[in-house]
Amino acid sequence: MQVxxxxxxxxxxxSAETYPQFAHALRNSSxxxxxxxxxxxxxxxDRGNFKAKIxxxxxxxxxxxxxxGKAFIGRGGKTFDQVMLAIGLDTNRDMIICNxxxxxxxxxxxxxxxxxxxxxxxxxxxxELVRPKVILLLGATxxxxxxxxxxxxxxxxxxxxxxTLPQFPGIxxxxxxxxxxxxxxxxxxxxxxxxxxxLKSFLSL
Length: 205
Known about the structure:
Layout (H helix, E strand, L loop, with lengths): L6 H8 L4 H9 L19 E2 L5 E5 L4 H6 L6 H11 L5 H4 E5 L13 H18 L3 E5 H8 L8 H4 L3 E2 L8 E5 L2 H6 L4 H15 L2
Parallel strand pairs: 2-3, 2-4, 4-6
Antiparallel strand pairs: 1-3, 5-6
Helix pairs in contact: 1-2
């Protein structure tokens, strides 16, 4: 059965005026907005620099993220760090990294639609407070939950392209392969490197 955040907790999180206030309130809340709360160790809010102009949105925390409370520090996160470092970007300095879901799904499965929906207000608040110029969407889960109009698509047709969304004026989006996919399919690495170079070129304009 779903049990919501207490009204005072919801208010503290979603009415925060600064990102540090928001992050602290969410991290220390006892959120029960969906079933994922029952298996979590930590609510994983982010990793990186909230003043950065690049936001990265992934799928959900994994084991290492759940234990530490920091986003994207497992094998996939380290792979992403390397890809970005190759174009001169430090993920902790130049980016703020978060996920569609803030709690770890069982067996590292993708978050269910209702789980993603429960976390959506928190993700929207992050975007509002950070005000990034670029948002990188890592994998199909991030893409379809940030842009619900994409019902059926193939990632190979979506990755590496800049696009905008009317609900997020002034932000350029780019979908990328999820770094975890590179661990299982090395054939994706050249495309990921090419897309990273495209990001670098855009940032230098």
